[in-house]
Design brief:
CATH class: Mainly Alpha
Largest sheet: none
Shape: elongated
Number of helices: 5
Number of strands: 0
Structural class: mainly alpha
Distance between the termini: 32 Å
CATH topology: Four Helix Bundle (Hemerythrin (Met), subunit A)
Helix content: over 70%
Number of domains: 1
Radius of gyration: 13 Å
Order of helices and strands: HHHHH
Length: 113
């Protein structure tokens, strides 16, 4: 069952597709049940990150630094999620998922502006 659109394969995305992806991620971050779910979430977070990187220049200059900072945090959390999915995460998946929920919401808020 596919859960995310392949934004990374298309080389980016528009704001609406990224907002849709962030909404989907928020819902799926609430209740992952297996390592396979964590891997799917990792793929979705990576797609969101890639699509947002393509839109950095369209963010108003006053918010661009903050947006880049959010994307760096999103990238780091995606790596932590990958480690948690492989069972090598020191802090466990719950902390990473909680942090990711907040970051995805913040990224979505910037995209809505």
């Amino acid at each position: 069952m596919p859960c995310f659109t392949g934004l990374s394969s298309g080389g980016g995305g528009d704001r609406e597709s990224l907002l849709s992806l962030s909404d989907s991620l928020e819902a799926r971050l609430a209740a992952p049940s297996s390592a396979k779910d964590l891997r799917r979430l990792h793929d979705g977070v990576s797609d969101l990150h890639s699509g947002c990187v393509a839109l950095i220049d369209s963010v108003p200059a006053t918010g661009r630094f903050r947006f880049r900072s959010l994307l760096n945090r999103l990238d780091e959390q995606a790596r932590e999620l990958d480690l948690a999915a492989a069972g090598r995460g020191g802090g466990g998946a719950d902390k990473v998922l909680g942090d990711l929920r907040g970051t995805v919401k913040e990224v979505a808020a910037v995209l809505r502006r």
